């Protein structure tokens, strides 16, 4: 079997979605992915390159891409934009120091043509920390209300306790599904 | 299969009913056997599909890589027209190869991915180099070639760190949140300490410090060090990550889950890290195992949840050094004889 056949087969599968998880390094992307997949989160290393996990959820097959957020890797993000259905932007709610950096990266990202049409879920992560900013504060700091180009939603969560991870992903799936699978 | 046992049971049950039961059981067993064979066959098939995919990927990638290398090496000494054509072809092929890699990622292992990524990076590097050398300045360019040149200049900016945001403005950061940020800023030549009551489970920030000695007795959630020069900073177990940015000529020591070091030079780190340490844009960073101790260290380890027995202090990933096989020149381990053992203030 040639690669093209395999790729075609993969894409033909119905109810399959491609989710791209981005954000600054240390935001908790890999932890979210592993938690969602029920894996041990105490041994997670900084991501050199990317992780991919394929999950089954509510009858959907999710291909979740977690791409490293180090400065030296951000320029590679664009290599992963193609055919992204949903974008998960993860924010370290306790990292006040880099919120401006975070805002800047997000707004640059949303200008990308290849991400046009993708649904945006913002995870205000690390809510279990006493110093975490609320999702309202982050919504304001990142100026989310100015986003008109994408469907978006912000959800506060903790990758450590698992709080709200599911409801976030459920919202994302519903929004994407409404767009993709009800067209016909 | 245990037919003996099967028939042994039969003698206990009476007449037709018993025989039917046996029949039924045998049939079920046979079905299970068939299912099992079927399952194994499928497993084997999907295994071989996986191998096939991998094989196809590796051979295609190799072939394309060699083809691009040939194109590039054929540029030296060739005349301008040929060089233009070859460079253009190589540019397109590299883009295609990147796409092929992206599409194949689902079934590649981390190792293969890394190998392929660094091979691609190398190709892009030599393409840029040859273009630089071989092509005359833009004003002599043909129309057709300008397009390619544009593409490449885009790639060149790609390989540099994309957004060199200036260091976060401290005023900005503290706005509305001063009550929640803990640490020290803008100090010179001081001896500074914090206790566990002050820092446990909090984000601690030390910034713009020079010639200071800092002792943090406790277990913060995260520790940020920014703009540090000639300091000695010791900290109890950090539950998640330690973040270092722009640190020079300093000695640091702490246990943590992850260590992320950026733009740091000539600094020693006495480290306990339960997952990994990484460096990015660093030189002259050296590592040794954590050796500082203070009376409540054990307690703070418990608060942090870190595993005291797992220390990967000498496994450091360099994000600026992706070449597999050759170790990064940007970090070293401190020889045992040179390690600091006395941490008295
Ligand atoms: N307290 C807390 N720590 C978290 C949470 N999510 C991630 N972390 C920690 O943050 C650090 C970075 O997480 P990681 O998933 O590697 O970040 P990534 O760079 O975005 O992939 C790790 O030390 C995690 O344990 C969270 O929800 N709460
Ligand atoms: Mg990661």
From TrEMBL, chain A:
GO terms for MF: GTP binding; GTPase activity; metal ion binding
Compartment list: Cytoplasm, Cytoskeleton, Microtubule organizing center, Centrosome
Any Pfam family matching the protein: Arf
InterPro entries registered for this protein in UniProt: Arl2, ARL2/3, P-loop_NTPase, Small_GTP-bd, Small_GTPase_ARF/SAR
CDD domains noted in UniProt: Arl2
Cellular component, GO annotation: centrosome
Residues holding GTP: 23-30, 69, 125-128
Main location: cytoplasm
Family under the similarity heading: Belongs to the small GTPase superfamily. Arf family.
Name of this chain's protein: ADP-ribosylation factor-like protein 2
Organism: Cynoglossus semilaevis
From TrEMBL, chain B:
Regions of compositional bias (Basic and acidic residues) in chain numbering: 22-49
Single GO biological process annotation from the record: post-chaperonin tubulin folding pathway
Ranges for region Disordered: 1-49
Keyword terms of this UniProt record: Acetylation, Chaperone, Cytoplasm, Phosphoprotein
GO CC field: cytosol
A Pfam match: TBCC_N
Limits of the C-CAP/cofactor C-like domain: 167-321
PROSITE patterns: C_CAP_COFACTOR_C
Subcellular localization: Cytoplasm
Any one GO MF annotation of this record: tubulin binding
Classification via PANTHER family: TUBULIN FOLDING COFACTOR C, TUBULIN-SPECIFIC CHAPERONE C
Name of the protein in question: Tubulin-specific chaperone C
């Amino acid at each position: 079997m040639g690669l093209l056949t395999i790729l075609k087969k993969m894409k033909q599968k119905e109810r399959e979605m491609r989710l791209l998880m981005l954000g600054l390094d240390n935001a908790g992307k890999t932890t979210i992915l592993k938690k969602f997949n029920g894996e041990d989160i105490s041994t997670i290393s900084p991501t050199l390159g990317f992780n991919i996990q394929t999950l089954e959820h509510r009858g959907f097959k999710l291909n979740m891409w977690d791409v490293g957020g180090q400065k030296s890797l951000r320029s590679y993000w664009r290599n992963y934009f193609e055919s992204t259905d949903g974008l998960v932007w993860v924010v370290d709610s306790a990292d006040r120091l880099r919120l401006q950096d975070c805002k800047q990266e997000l707004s640059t990202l949303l200008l990308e043509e290849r991400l046009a049409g993708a649904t945006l879920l913002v995870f205000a992560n690390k809510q279990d920390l006493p110093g975490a900013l609320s999702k309202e504060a982050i919504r304001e700091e990142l100026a989310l209300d100015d986003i008109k180009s994408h469907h978006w939603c912000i959800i506060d969560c903790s990758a450590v306790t698992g709080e709200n991870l599911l409801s976030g992903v459920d919202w994302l799936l519903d929004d994407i599904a409404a767009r993709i699978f009800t067209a016909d | 299969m245990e037919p003996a046992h099967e028939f042994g049971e039969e003698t206990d049950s009476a007449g037709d009913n018993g025989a039917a039961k046996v029949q039924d059981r045998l049939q079920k067993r046979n079905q299970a056997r068939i299912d099992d064979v079927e399952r194994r066959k499928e497993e084997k098939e999907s295994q071989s599909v996986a191998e096939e995919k991998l094989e196809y990927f590796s051979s295609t990638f190799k072939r394309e890589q060699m083809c691009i290398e040939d194109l590039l090496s054929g540029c030296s000494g060739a005349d301008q027209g040929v060089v233009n054509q070859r460079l253009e072809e190589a540019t397109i092929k590299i883009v295609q190869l990147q796409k092929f890699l992206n599409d194949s990622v689902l079934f590649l292992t981390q190792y293969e991915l890394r190998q392929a990524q660094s091979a691609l990076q190398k190709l892009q590097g030599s393409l840029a180099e040859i273009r630089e050398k071989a092509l005359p300045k833009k004003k002599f360019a043909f129309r057709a070639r300008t397009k390619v040149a544009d593409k490449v200049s885009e790639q060149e900016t790609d390989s540099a760190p994309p957004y060199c945001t200036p260091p976060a403005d401290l005023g900005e950061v503290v706005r509305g949140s001063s009550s929640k940020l803990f640490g020290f800023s803008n100090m010179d030549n001081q001896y500074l300490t914090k206790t566990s009551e002050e820092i446990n489970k909090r984000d601690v920030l030390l910034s713009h410090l020079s010639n200071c000695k800092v002792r943090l007795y406790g277990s913060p959630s995260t520790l940020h060090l920014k703009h540090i020069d000639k300091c000695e900073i010791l900290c109890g177990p950090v539950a998640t990550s330690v973040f270092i940015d722009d640190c020079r000529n300093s000695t640091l020591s702490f246990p943590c889950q992850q260590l992320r070091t950026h733009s740091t030079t000539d600094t020693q780190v006495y480290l306990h890290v339960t997952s990994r340490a990484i460096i990015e844009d660093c030189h002259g960073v050296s590592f040794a195992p954590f050796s500082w101790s203070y009376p409540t260290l054990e307690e703070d380890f418990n608060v942090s949840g870190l595993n005291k027995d797992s220390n990967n202090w000498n496994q450091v990933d360099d994000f600026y050094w992706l070449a597999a096989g050759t170790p990064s020149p940007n970090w070293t381990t401190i020889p045992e004889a040179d390690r600091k053992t006395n941490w008295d203030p």
